[in-house]
Design brief:
EC number: 4.3.2.8
Enzyme class: lyase
Number of helices: 3
Distance between the termini: 36 Å
Protein name: Gamma-glutamylaminecyclotransferase
Order of helices and strands: EHEEEEHEHE
Family: Belongs to the gamma-glutamylcyclotransferase family.
Helix content: 10-25%
Largest sheet: 5 strands, mixed, barrel
Catalytic activity: epsilon-(gamma-L-glutamyl)-L-lysine = 5-oxo-L-proline + L-lysine
Strand content: 25-35%
Structural class: alpha+beta
Shape: globular
Number of strands: 7
Oligomer: single chain
């Protein structure tokens, strides 16, 4: 099992969360909530209002999200869903645990107790330069105050 940190439309209550609980795509088990140890710019961009974490460490905010334990099948689905490696790249990042529900062996308990876990995160280095000038967010909600509602893939033209 691999750990994945999601910060956008795959979180609970967001438009693509349905994929995280679809066992036909693999297994994803909610472990807890966290935020990036380093600051990153989280922007909402493009005509479909997609959240992107720009891989520019030290800029932006500590980004909030959810930590999942996923099997190989779900990781492969997420790679495809996230357009990895073209649109997003899956990299390891350090995530500060804010709230932990994970159940597992001693390694799990130790990681949670230390307050920092390593997770795969889908961020991007392949973005138009003007995105750096967009507003930076510390957390994402499709129906947030920003007024930029996410457009589901099945609704795109």
């Amino acid at each position: 099992m691999a750990r994945v940190f999601v910060y956008g439309t795959l979180k609970k209550g967001q438009p693509n969360y349905k994929h995280m609980i679809n066992t036909a795509k693999g297994l994803a088990k909610f472990q807890g909530r966290g935020r990036t140890v380093e600051k990153y710019p989280l922007v909402i961009a493009g005509k479909y209002n997609v959240p992107y974490m720009l891989n520019i460490p030290g800029t932006g905010h500590h980004v909030a999200g959810e930590i999942y334990s996923v099997d190989d099948q779900m990781l492969q689905f997420l790679d495809e869903f996230e357009g990895c490696p073209d649109m997003y790249q899956r990299t390891l990042m350090r995530i500060e645990v804010v709230e932990w529900e994970g159940k597992g062996g001693a390694g799990e308990a130790r990681a949670a107790a230390e307050g920092i876990v390593e997770c795969f995160v889908y961020s991007t280095t392949t973005y138009p330069p003007e995105w750096v000038g967009l507003p930076y967010h510390d957390s994402y909600d499709s129906s947030g105050k920003h007024g930029l509602s996410y457009v589901l893939r099945e609704s795109r033209d």
